[in-house]
């Protein structure tokens, strides 16, 4: 991989992989760390729309958005609506600020279709 020309340039690289027959996407941040004086690549997100993935609390694809909100009541949640190529979808983000992690649930027509786990590094 070529070194960065700009110190503040950040690139996102996505790798499609299969783990135990489950399709996943691994998203990497590729940036220049000024403190370390070198280029750094870190795993930022794991994404899947495979219907065999179930969270510890039993959330799985096909679940209704409002049932999930009720199930996670008392947690820090952020619900947002989006459009991509003119098609609406929404996300529900469950954040653990102490651990620096987020679980994002993706919905179409209020039904869960994908889940992502993200690590939020303070330096990025």
Distance between the termini: 20 Å
Q: How many beta-strand segments?
A: 7
Tell me, briefly, the overall form: globular
Radius of gyration: 17 Å
Biggest sheet strand order reads 1-2-3-7-6-5-4
Low-confidence runs: none
Binned strand content? over 45%
**Approximate helicity band:** under 10%
Structural class of the secondary elements? mainly beta
Tally of DSSP helical segments: 1
Strand-and-helix sequence, N→C? Answer: EEEHEEEE
Q: Largest sheet at a glance?
A: 7 strands, antiparallel
Structural overview:
The protein has 124 residues and is mainly beta. 6% of the residues lie in helices and 55% in strands. It has one helix spanning 65-71; strands at residues 10-19, 22-33, 38-48, 77-84, 87-96, 101-108, 111-119. A 7-stranded antiparallel beta sheet has the order 1-2-3-7-6-5-4, with no helix packed on it. Strand 4 (77-84) and strand 5 (87-96) form a beta hairpin. The longest helix is centred in the middle third of the chain and has 7 residues, at 65-71. It starts with 9 loop residues before the first strand and ends in a 5-residue tail after the last strand.
